[in-house]
Structure formats: structure tokens, C-alpha cells
Amino acid sequence: MPTMRYREALNQALREEMEADENVFIMGEDVGVFQGAFKVTAGLLEEFGEKRVRDTPISENTIVGMGVGSAMIGLRPVVEIMTINFSLLAMDQIVNHAAAIRYMFGGQVKAPMVIRMPQGAGHQLGPTHSHCLEAFFLHVPGLLVAVPSTPADAKGLLKAAIRDDNPVIFIEHETLYGQRGDVPENGGPMRFGEAAIRREGDDVTIIGISRMAITALKAANKLADEHEINAEVIDPRTLRPLDLDTILESVKKTNRAVIVEEGWPHGGVGANLAALIQEQAFDWLDAPVQRVTGADVPMPYSKPLEQAAFPHEEHVVQAAIATFTDL
Amino acid sequence: MATRETAKSGKEVTAGNGDGADPPEVAGEIGFGEVKHDLPDKDTCRTVLSKMMLIRRFEERAGEMYAKAKIGGFLHLCIGEEATVVGATQALRDTDYLMSTYREHGQAIARGTHPNAVMAELFGRQGGCSHGRGGSMHLFDWDKRFLGGYGIVGGSLPLSAGVALACDYMGTEDAILSMMGDGATNQGTFGETMNLAALWQLPVVFVIINNQFGMGTALHRHSAVTELSRKSEGYGVPGRRCDGMDALDVHSVVGDALQSAREERRPQLVEAVTYRYRGHSMADPEEYRTKEEVEEWRERDPIRAFADRLVDEGVLTNEDVERMDREAIEAVDEAAQFADQSPFPELDSLYDEIYVFSGDVPGWWTVDERSPEVHRGEREREAGEVPHELAEKGAAYAGVGDEQARKRRAPRDQGAEGAQQGPADDASAEGDAD
Question: How confident is the model at residue B21 (pLDDT cuts 50, 70, 90)?
């Protein structure tokens, strides 16, 4: 199986889907001549030309809105937002328009589009370029939300997102772009709504979102090595639709759950998952559901502060151990 | 900072900065009431007049139905703006697209959506053109290429540019007419969309329906530049003005603009200077303008002026005009009757059409996805007033919640491992139970 970087896997998905369907096109800030702020679209302008790889002005709300409009009458736009914080400028088009348009017009129209954007801390980009905002989008009925953490998922889910008839928020992670992993050759689109069990275990279920799936796996290995705790690690891969069945099955086996996310705690993905778990599996729980989240602060610039503001494996280890303490 | 005096530069730009500024005088420049164009053929004259009459009578009836509480929410009437609505939409080909604002009943009707379907939508009925999901502000008719009314001021501008992009991308000759109010020209999407439309040479014509007010704020109090046709020029979209009380002038100017957009790939902007006789919505005490001002504009009534001219020039008789008006009234009578008889949407359709389901994708799409038959809201409705009464008495939901929790925690029949208990299999215990 070939090995490639996360960004290369994304690039391959874009290339393959553009080859397969001439209605697929890319637009965004610096996606063409500049090759993409994170080089995800490298080489695509040269291969597909300016009609299909469109550099835009810095106008996030209108770029997204034009994607919606073009999707309404038959195109399949892939809109790149340079970083997730900038998507806040486009919230009107994402929430009031992309997500609502099918419902509010009684099912007469659809908006098959992908809005790609990276998130995450670790590069000292400070309080306007490094948040994790998947919870904002998870909140909205009408959107699908993908949070791939491996190159294989990045490719398979992006292909699926482009072929899907719904508006998809496709959230990449800045620190994962350079990560390598196996990607199946000639792999097709993956299905949304299927979680991956990254590690099997019987003692505690750890659910990691986006990059935190990787942090969770590291923590699980440490729990096994140092604490004789055999953790099961689940990467939901998509938050809408959500593979709650796999999560519940695991929790019913381990009776303990830890949710790890990089975003803020209040109203976060973890809060939502904890609610669903206690609603659906309350009687199987032997301990309160634990959450490990980003710090409840705007992301600081200074390196030690930034490192202190998002979860590391040690936090996850402590949270997992806490599910075994007597109540 | 420039004072009002220095900001003014002759007739070129009329500036205002708040309460102190006098409203700009546009009447002379526009030439309201002047004959600007020869009449088109008789059939076209008849079509234009009958559409304007139908819209007027429809809006009047909608206002009455609102007063009778048949219509909820907001209701924005376009009475006074009929010449702009009909003149502009008549310039479209059947294959062209139209997008509008939340004041769009007239646009839907002018584009050919049946008044029955429009009225039923206002009533929130299944027979409405958006099946009761959108309401007055969100009419839509795919078959007529009427791509919607939009409730966010300026929100449809990027969408319309996107439609134009798709028209261009797919190599068609189609164009889109994108309508906005004067207030939308102050939104960020206005500048962003003008720039992109010009930059990418898109086949789109923007029409500003300048009815003199952004809700209750007069034009000269909300826009420093009150000659709105100039606001797009800096972005590369040429603008022009027309007499929004004269359907023929609107038709002529918008028609030319569509030709430029379609053939030269140069997006255009048209400012139609008009007036709405009624409030912003039905909930508008209209304290921001005088009765005299409204009266002055009513004297320019676009329907009466056009009808009078058709009679004067021998195209129609007074009897023809009266008969056409009676037909319009009959049509809106029928629309109100149809709407009243159309059923409300089924409650179990609440979750329909949020997503396009591809069939084989698993997972929870919405929180209630696993129980399509019974949703939380329905159970509350079935419970009637009891939960509300409990809540009001301070007992809150606690009792109800305990009852539901007890059911949910009932042991499984098959006996789970050891002492573990599982959720009840009885799905009726709670909407989201497995």
C-alpha cells in the first residue's frame, strides 16, 4: 500500500474527482498560482486550468455563497477557506443559506458542495488562526461534518464529500498535513457515518476528534504500557452523520468513556457526545463520562501558553485513570 | 472627517449624514410621469397591466388574510413597486434565472408561479410553493427558474453570482436577474459580489429596488451615496437608473442590461427608483414618513398611470380595464380559497428534506434520525397542555422526566449480563430510544 502525506492524499482526491466529473471545480484564496496556503491544491491549476481552479479575492462570505449558488443549478464546487477562523466570515452563507436552502424551499433544490478548511493549534498562529470550531458546524442541521485524522481517511472522505449531494464541512488539521500514512491504491470514496476503531480494548473507550484521535491513540498505548489499562480508541471520522452505534457498542463493553477534543469545552463536541452517551447508555456507565478539551481561552501566541491550551496525551491518560477512581 | 458640505459635490453625488440632511430630490431627474417609450404591441401591454393588477390585488388580499391571522410571521407587501417587478421580470427569457429578496410575492407571480401556490405558502400549507417550509420570505419555484426569496438582506447576492458562474461554466446563454433592496447596498456582500461578478465577467444583472427605505430608515439616512446606481461602479459594474414607476422604462433599461450581461459578459446594475405604499412589514407604524409623502408617490401610481395611458392611446377601453381588475380579484379570491383548503404539512414530515439521503450512509444524521415515526416534539404535542401547566406551576418537567427515565431504565426482557440494565425496548417510552 503506498504511503503518502495527508496533504498529498487530499490532493489526489481532488485530482481524481476533477478527472471523473467536469462539474467539480475548486475556488478559494490562493488555491491556484500560489498552490494553496498549505499546498493541498498544488499542481491542480496547471493540470485543470483557470476555469476549474479559481483564485478568489479575500471575500469568504461571497466565495461560499457563490459555491452555494453554483451548486444549486448543477455544479459541484469545492471551496477552500484558508483557515477555520475565516469561515466565521462566511457563517451567513453556510448556516442561513447552504444548510437551509433545501429545507426552506421544500426540497426543490440541493447544494452539493464541499467547504474545506484547516483548523488546530501548534504552529503559534495565535488567537485568530488556530482554533478548533467543528462544534459550530456540528450544531447545524443541513450540514455534514467530516474530521479526518489520517491520510487514508482524508482521501476517502474527501472523495465521498465531493460526490455527496449535501453541503459538507470538511475540516482538516494544520499539524496533520505533513503526516504520512498508508493510503489504499485506487481507493474509492469512504462512507460517511462509519467510525474507525483505532485500537481495541476492554477497559475504557476513548473517543478522539480530528487530530485528537491520534493523541488518544498515543495515550492508549501509554495506558497499556504504564498503567495496565487496555483502552479502546474510536475515531468517529464524521460528526454528522455520527456513527453513534459503534461508540455505544464500545461503551457498553468498557462501561467507561473519555472524549478528547481540541475545541472549547462549553457546547463542544464532547459535551454533545457525553449527552448522547448518557441518554443512550446510562445504565452501562460505571463512571461519569470524562471530557478532555482545549482550554476555555482564545488561543495564545506564546509557545508554552499555546501548548498548555490544547490536550496532550498526558491529559488523556489522567482522564482515563479518573474513570477508574471510586465515586 | 468630511462635513456634509464638503462631501457634497454638485449633482454628482448626493450625500447625507443623518437626521439633519434633507432628502435628495430625485423626481425631476427621473422624470416621473413623463412618456419615455412608445407602447409595445397590444398583447404585451395587456400582459404587463394584468400582471401588475394581479400583484396589487394579491398583496391587498394577503394583507387582509394577515389581519385575519391566516398568515403568520412577517409579511412584506410590494404595493407601489409593481412596475419595477413586472417591468424587470418581463425582460427575462424563460431559461433565465431570478432571485429576489423577502419582498417577493410579486416576483413569483410575475415569473409565472400560480397565485394559489404563493398564497398557500403564506398560509403555511403543503400546497404552498415551498410546501410551507419557507413562508412569505422564502418562495421558490424551480420550474419557473425562480430561485427564491431570501430573508437575509444581501444574502442572495453571492448566490446569484454563483448561479451566473454556473451559467458561464456550463457554456449556456442563460443569465440571472438578482434583485435587492436599497438597504442591501450597505452590506458587505454587495461590494464582494460586485467585485467578483466583474472580475469573472459573469452574466448577472443586479436590480436595486430603491423603495426609499431600508426598513424604517430613509435612504439619505442609511447611505452616504444616495444615487445607488453609482455604488457598483468602483467595483467594475456599470450602473444605470430607471423610473421604477414605469414598467416600460424598467423593462427597457433592464432589457439592455441583460443584453450586455449575456452577450458581452459584463455584469450590470440597474437602480429602479420606486416607492412602497405600505409599511416595511405589517408590523410597521410608519412613523418615519409623512402621509403627504406617501400621497405624493401614490399620485404616480404605476398601475393607474399605465392603464390611463392604454385607454388614452386606444389600446384598451375603460371597460377592458375594469374587467381585467375583476379578473385579478377573482384570481386572488380563488388563491385565498385554495390556500385555506390546502392541508397543513404532516407533522411527521418535520424532518423531511433536511438532507439528500444517498441510501447507504449510516449513522445519526439528526438527533431523532433513529426514530422517524416518533419525535420529541410530537410527544409534547400529544401530551397537550400538561407539560406547560406543570412548568408554570413550578413542578417543571421533573415528574415527567422521572417517569420517562423509569421507563427507559426498565430491565430488558432477555436479561442483560449480570445485574446490568438496558433501555426499554418500548420505543414509545422516549422518542429517541432504540
Answer: low
CB contact at 8 A, B79 and B278: yes
Report how far residue B394's alpha carbon sits from residue A180's, in angstroms, rounded to the nearest whole number: 58
Q: Which residue has the higher pLDDT, B405 or B434?
A: B405
Q: Which of B130, B354, B422 sits opposite A141 (nearest CB)?
A: B354
Enumerate the residues of chain B whose CB falls inside 8 A of the CB of residue A142: 354-355
Q: Which CATH architecture has domain A3-182?
A: 3-Layer(aba) Sandwich (3.40)
Shortest distance between the Cα of B130 and any Cα of chain A, in A, equals 5
Domain B26-341 belongs to what topology? Rossmann fold (3.40.50)
Instruction: For chain B, give percent helix, strand, coil, nearest 5.
Output: 45, 10, 45
- Taking only the tens place, the pLDDT of each residue in A264-278 is 999 999 999 999 999
Yes or no, beta carbons of B166 and A75 under 8 Å apart: yes
Q: What is the pLDDT of residue B433?
A: 30
Compute the nearest-CA separation of B160 from chain A (Å).
Answer: 6
pTM exceeding the 0.90 threshold for the entire prediction: no
Residue spans of the domains in chain A: they are 3-182, 196-322
Span B231-262, pLDDT tens digits: 999 999 999 999 999 999 999 999 999 999 99
For the annotated catalytic residues of A, the residue numbers are 60, 129
Within 8 A of B166 by CB-CB distance, chain A residues are 69-70, 72-75
Q: By three-state DSSP, how is residue B97 classified?
A: strand
Q: What pLDDT digit, counting tens, does each position of B48-61 carry?
A: 999 999 999 999 99
Tell me if A3-182 shares its fold with A196-322: yes
Bridge-based pairing state of the strands A180-182 and A3-5: antiparallel
Distance separating the N- and C-terminal Cα atoms of chain B: 65
- Cα of B129 to nearest chain A Cα, Å: 8
pLDDT confidence of residue B412: 37
Flag if A93 and B195 touch (Cβ within 8 Å): no
Share of chain A residues as helix, strand and coil, in percent rounded to the nearest 5? 40, 20, 40
Within an 8 Å CB–CB cutoff, is residue A175 touching chain B? Answer: no
CB contact under 8 A, B134 and A72: no
Class of domain A196-322: alpha beta
A-chain CB neighbours of B130 within 8 Å are 104-106, 108
Q: Does the structure show a pLDDT above 50 at B407?
A: no
**Domain residues of chain B, as ranges?**
26-341, 348-429
- What's the complex ipTM? 0.95
Strands (E), chain A: 3-5, 24-28, 53-55, 76-80, 114-119, 144-146, 168-173, 180-182, 196-199, 204-208, 231-235, 238-240, 257-260, 290-292
Do residue B162 and residue A67 have CB atoms under 8 angstroms apart?
A: yes
